Give the backbone structure.
Amino acid sequence: MSFVWPELYFIRHGQTDWNAEGRYQGSRDIPLNAIGQGQADHNGVLLAQLLERDGRTAGDFSWHVSPLGRTRETMQRVQAAFSAPPEAVPDKRLVEVSFGIYEGKLHDELTPGEMVVAGERDASFWDFRPPGGESYQDVAERILDFAGELKGPAVIVAHGGILRVMRRLIEDYPVEEAVNWFPPQDNVVHFIDGKSTFHPASGAAAD
């Protein structure tokens, strides 16, 4: 791929009750729970530590957020760790992959062959489009469209499916691993020079 990705810091939204219950959430607007609010707060503190460590400020980055409530609240809590961060721009291209008719259903209540759960998928799942929903390839196309408009380094708060796609696009993460990987909600992910580094919010800023 000839596209050169800018430096990115990515934070997945904090936990929701649907995450905790094992429900397909997708594009449904489900709020953070108390655990998720705490995760967002800790991720904000960690991001501030990481930028300070590197001699950077919030103003060195553009800030972008999925318009769903759980991501907007996560962004607000992350930005609370900074004195005067830039306005976070909502972008619908950052909304989670839509699971269509399966949204709201528990992972384990579907019959075999309906919707394969993460951990049991093969590479073909990248192109699987559930009825009324999207495939990861569909999401990749809108993420590339979004990325093409970035003018420089950016902070993004979005969703687990978006992070799966970004790892695939930025660092050529193998397809079968991408569709089976479980994106963390308590990490700040740093993308630079085609590689990702995961910084857990439970600890101090790492090298």
Observations:
- Residues 8-200 form a domain with the Rossmann fold fold (CATH 3.40.50.1240).
- Confidence is low (pLDDT under 50) at residues 203-207.
